[in-house]
Amino acid sequence: MKAQRRHELKQNTLAHSLETLPDFGRRHGTKLLLVVMVGLLVTLLIRSRVASSRAAADQAAYSLSHGRELIGQLQTSAEQLPPAQFAKVAQEISKAVDSAVQQVLESSDDPRALAEARVIQGDLNWHLAAMPEPPGATSRPELALPRTDEQLLDTAAAAYKAATEQPGAPKESVTTARLGLAAVAENRRQWDQAKEQYQKVLDDPATPKPMKDLAAGSISRLETLRKPPLIAPPATAPVLPGATQPTTTTAPTTTTAATTSTAPASAPASAPVGPEKPQGPR
Questions:
Q1: From CA 25, how far away is CA 42, in angstroms rounded?
Q2: Which CATH architecture has domain 57-225?
Q3: Among 131, 158, 237, 244, which residue carries the largest CB count within 10 Å?
Q4: In whole angstroms, how far apart are CA 147 and each of 48, 91, 164, 281?
Q5: Mean pLDDT lowest for which of 36-50, 199-213, 260-274?
Q6: Residue 231, SS3?
């Protein structure tokens, strides 16, 4: 009897629920539909954001790789093309690299991509400043680049500095940027500033040993570069007894020393060294 009674109660409860279901749907159906729609919208937004982030990362990687290739083409063009043609190619490459860098800076939030974009921007301007001035550029302005060497070096230094200050930047990018800052300082004969950057590379425990060796060797080389050549005064022979006038030697004795260079002996580690260029604006 008890089991039958419980069965009847369950049937009555189910019947009551079915009877009241339409009324419940009328009262709460809008809220339930809203909850379902919000859940679907959140899911779609998350998927869209993930897909967008992946697409941005892929685009940033392509832009950075393309920028590196263009800098390599710049160096090759400087060696193979005549001055008039190279000036045009250099301007086109400069615009293309700047465009690739800006694309990364504006679309990516990856610290690695942002730091690498700054390093590429620095390398581009450093190499442009280190390129030899085309023959005849003084009388033919169309052969010269739009910016002077100092302006190019200013841009390079600013880009390298931004890379070292990028939050979350990988150590290899920071190290490369510091070597770039040192190269710019050497080009300007700012030996103390160059040494400061090399010392930071040397003191960083995360710096690989080859980079530490490079920094240590560069610091030693700076000590030679910063010393001016030594020239001894002419040697004078003693006056002989009974001579009517002093006898002197006319050839001065010169001690040879290392001479300074206007171009840095080491370029940014991320790119090959460009041809040496005389100091001074175009």
A1: 24
A2: Alpha Horseshoe (1.25)
A3: 131
A4: 43, 10, 25, 9
A5: 260-274
A6: strand
Q: Return d(Cα 123, Cα 140) in angstroms, integer.
A: 27
Place of tokens 């490459």: 93
256 in helix, strand or coil? coil
φ/ψ of 227, rounded to 5, equals -85, 130
Which residue, among 116, 120, 188, 192, has the nearest Cα to 156 in the 3D structure?
A: 120
Tell me which residue of 71, 49, 53 sits closest to 61, measured CA to CA: 53
**pLDDT tens string 167-216:** 999 999 999 999 999 999 999 999 999 999 999 999 999 899 999 999 99
Nearest CA among 174, 168, 180 for reference residue 205? 174
Say how far apart CA 137 and CA 160 lie, in whole Å: 29
State both tokens at 117: 């974009």
| pTM beyond 0.85, yes or no | no
Of the candidates 98, 106, 15, 101, the residue with the CA atom closest to the CA atom of residue 56 = 106
Buried b (16+ CB within 10 A) or exposed e, 56-65: bbebbbebbe
Instruction: Report the alpha-carbon distance of residue 122 to residue 177 in Å, rounded.
Output: 8
The length of the chain is 282
Q: What angle do CA 72, 143, 100 make, to 5 degrees?
A: 35
Helix, strand, coil percentages, rounded to 5, for the chain = 65, 0, 30
Residue of 74, 119, 116 whose CA lies nearest to 94? 74
